[in-house]
Amino acid sequence: PDVSLLLEGDRTLTNLVTVVDNQSTGKSELGGYTIDSTPTFAGPISISKPVLTLTANTNSTVTFSGEMSGTVGIAKTGAGEVVLSPSGGNLSVTNLALASGKLSISPALLASGVDEVDFVYCGGETATLELTGDVDLTGWTLNVKGLFRPERDATEMPASFTFAVSSSDGTVSGTPAIRIVGEKRDIDWWTVTPSGENVWRVRCSKPGF
Fold first, then answer.
1. pLDDT category, 141, cuts 50, 70, 90?
2. What whole-number distance in Å separates Cα of residue 170 and Cα of residue 185?
3. Residue 208: its pLDDT value, please?
C-alpha cells in the first residue's frame, strides 16, 4: 500500500521519520498537501526504501532541513517546490525523476556517477531541477518518460510538457543529451524543442494536430 506523511500549513516537524523498505510496491511519500504553505521537515529522516516521493502543492515550498540518511532515488511530484537541504547525515541520491514543480538540491547529494535526470510527462505541467553552484550539463542526459500515443480518433492534442535545469546561485552551461524514452510506437508521436535557456518543451506531433 501507499504510505504518506504530508504536513499541513506552515507546520514544522521535528520528530524522527523512518521510511522502511517493507518490500511493498506501494509509494512512500513525504511533503505537504496544502496550497500557499511552507512546511518544514526539521527532524532526522532515515530512509531504507529504494525510492522516496517528495511532494509540494501549488504555491508551496516544502523544506527538508534535518539530518537525512540513506541511499535512495527521489521522485518529485506536485506543482510546488521541494528544497532538499539536509543539515547532516549520509544521504546519497541515486536517481532523480521529476513530474512537476521544482526540486532544489545540491549536486553534493548526488551519488557518484549520477549524470542522468528523468522528467516524467505530466500534461500541462512544468518540472524544474534547480541545482546549487555553477552547473555544467556537458555529458548529462535528460530523459523524457511517460509519453503516450494518442488514440486514432483523438480530437484534442495532449497538453505539452516543459522541463528545465537551473541554478539557484550560479550559472548553467553546456548542452545535455535529450532522450525520449519509451516504446517506439509511442514516442514517435512526440518532439522536444528548446523553449528558452536550459528549458525544453515536449509536444505531441501527431499528424493533423
1. very high
2. 40
3. 58
User: What is the rounded CA–CA span in Å between residue 22 and residue 53?
Assistant: 15
Residue 108 has φ and ψ, to the nearest 5°, of -65, -20
Which residues, at least 6 apart from 58, have a Cβ–Cβ distance to it below 8 Å? 35, 36, 78, 79, 80
Give the residue carrying C-alpha cell 547525515.
89
For Cα atoms 183, 150, 188, give the angle at the middle one, nearest 5 degrees.
40
Q: Distance between alpha carbon 12 and the CA centroid of its chain, in Å?
A: 22
CB 203 within 8 A of CB 180: no
* pTM for this entry: 0.94
Helix H or strand E segment including 8: none
Q: Rounded CA gap, 168 and 17, in Å? A: 28
Question: What's the pLDDT at 207?
Answer: 64
pLDDT digits (tens, 9 = 90+) for 32-86: 999 999 999 999 999 999 999 999 999 999 999 999 999 999 999 999 999 999 9
In DSSP terms, which residues pair with 136 in a beta bridge?
173
